[in-house]
Design goal:
Blueprint: H1 5-20, H2 26-64, H3 75-80
Length: 81
């Protein structure tokens, strides 16, 4: 897998820091990079959930259809009531 120049630069910085510190000094920097990546993933998931929840519920409701004995679901019936 190819790495972006930004990732390569960060890894070089981490490697330089690791060379000048004890062996375990490398671990906190790696954990910091993992934390940054997880924060990005969390923000994307949160935004997707916020913008996608209502459309997903509407889609699933229209896909299932109306209960027996009820009028059929249409976009106009959704907006009118």
């Amino acid at each position: 897998m190819a790495m972006s120049p930004e990732v390569k630069e960060r890894l070089e910085i981490v490697y330089d820091i690791a060379k000048t510190t004890f062996h375990w000094g490398f671990v906190p920097m790696v954990l910091y990079l993992v934390k940054e990546r997880l924060e990005v993933v969390y923000e994307i998931a949160k935004t997707t959930f916020h913008w996608g929840f209502v459309p997903m519920v509407l889609y699933l409701g229209f896909k299932k259809g109306a209960e027996p004995g009820m009028p059929p679901l249409t976009l106009m019936s959704l907006l009118w009531q």
